[in-house]
């Protein structure tokens, strides 16, 4: 490239080098800066580089000068601190809805936001291969498409699959499309995160009801040029509270149920239903609470996990359903 054009990118070359090669433990010397400029075909003197570093400071970059143990410079404050990047890496690693491939790609992009020395520290804590991950690579883009549809108030269309056991096939556990592969068309209203999975909360105009769909089980998702429906159904819905009431996002009729717990379980109840609870005392060691819950096997399973420390008191028909569910579970163990 002509010398003049190279000079125009001088500041960018210096900034890139400081981003990639320097941090508090690894300052770069003036000679290293001059060598990098020469590698880029840029002729420079020390004085001009001093001026360039000052220009970067004036523009807001935290270029720090140090004198020990070696005289040099490093890029101090960045968009993300190392501790913040480690937190984000942990979140990506533990997200089941991201495939192993997409997790590694995202972590690679995070590494580019710090020095190569600190990127090595991020790389050492990556253990994606041992985590249970979704196998649907398109989920990453499905989420973005659904957000766009919600923003534009348009319907979405997709095919939906489930896992089935079929011992007549070479692979006993295989994917099978619901409704024979017929496309679903629903009105999206919210994306929710529950039990390590993303769910679409949508209105099904044919069934005239709110339904939930696992985003990682959607394929060939597209936005339709059709206005969404369900305004009346969602008019009075508090989506944050709705999420708390729908266990495992498998649905079920939402009912107000009265529950009784030992006092030590208040934390588990707050984690599940939030802090806005009306709690009443029931003797020295127990409390009662009435909450909205989607009555389903998932709700019963959650409650049964506390054993004798939790009881479902009312309504009576729901309490009887719970007893029948427990009896069926015991019978299955015979």
Automatic annotation (TrEMBL):
<dbReference type="InterPro" id="IPR036390">
    <property type="entry name" value="WH_DNA-bd_sf"/>
</dbReference>
<dbReference type="InterPro" id="IPR051534">
    <property type="entry name" value="CBASS_pafABC_assoc_protein"/>
</dbReference>
<feature type="domain" description="WYL">
    <location>
        <begin position="143"/>
        <end position="223"/>
    </location>
</feature>
<dbReference type="Pfam" id="PF13280">
    <property type="entry name" value="WYL"/>
</dbReference>
<dbReference type="InterPro" id="IPR057727">
    <property type="entry name" value="WCX_dom"/>
</dbReference>
<feature type="domain" description="WCX">
    <location>
        <begin position="256"/>
        <end position="330"/>
    </location>
</feature>
<protein>
    <submittedName>
        <fullName>WYL domain-containing protein</fullName>
    </submittedName>
</protein>
<dbReference type="Pfam" id="PF25583">
    <property type="entry name" value="WCX"/>
</dbReference>
<dbReference type="InterPro" id="IPR026881">
    <property type="entry name" value="WYL_dom"/>
</dbReference>
């Amino acid at each position: 490239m002509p010398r003049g054009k190279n000079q125009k990118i001088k500041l960018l070359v210096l900034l890139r080098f400081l981003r990639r090669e320097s941090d508090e433990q690894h300052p770069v010397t003036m000679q290293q800066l001059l060598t990098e400029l020469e590698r880029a075909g840029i002729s420079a003197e020390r004085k001009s580089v001093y001026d360039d570093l000052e220009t970067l400071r004036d523009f807001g970059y935290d270029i720090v000068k140090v004198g020990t143990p070696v005289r040099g410079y490093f890029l101090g404050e960045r968009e993300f601190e190392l501790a913040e990047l480690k937190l984000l890496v942990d979140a990506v690693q533990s997200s089941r809805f991201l495939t192993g491939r997409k997790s590694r790609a995202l972590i690679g992009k995070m590494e580019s936001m710090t020095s190569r020395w600190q990127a090595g520290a991020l790389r050492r804590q990556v253990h994606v291969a041992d985590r249970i991950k979704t196998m649907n690579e398109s989920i990453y883009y499905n989420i973005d498409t659904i957000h766009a549809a919600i923003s534009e108030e348009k319907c979405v269309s997709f095919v939906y699959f489930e896992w089935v056991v079929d011992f007549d096939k070479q692979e006993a556990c295989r994917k099978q499309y619901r409704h024979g592969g017929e496309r679903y068309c629903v009105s999206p209203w919210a994306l929710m995160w529950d039990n390590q999975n993303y769910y679409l909360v949508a209105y099904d105009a044919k069934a005239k009801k709110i339904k939930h769909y696992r985003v990682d089980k959607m394929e060939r998702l597209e936005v339709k040029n059709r206005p969404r429906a369900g305004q009346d159904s969602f008019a009075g819905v508090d989506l944050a509270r709705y999420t708390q009431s729908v266990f495992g996002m498998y649905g079920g009729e939402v009912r107000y149920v009265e529950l009784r717990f030992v006092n030590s379980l208040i934390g588990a109840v707050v984690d599940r239903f939030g802090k806005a609870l009306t709690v009443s005392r029931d003797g020295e060691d127990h409390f009662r609470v009435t909450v909205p819950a989607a009555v389903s096997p998932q709700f019963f399973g959650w409650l049964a996990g506390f054993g004798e420390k939790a009881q479902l008191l009312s309504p009576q028909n729901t309490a009887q359903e719970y007893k029948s569910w427990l009896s069926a579970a015991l019978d299955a163990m015979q």
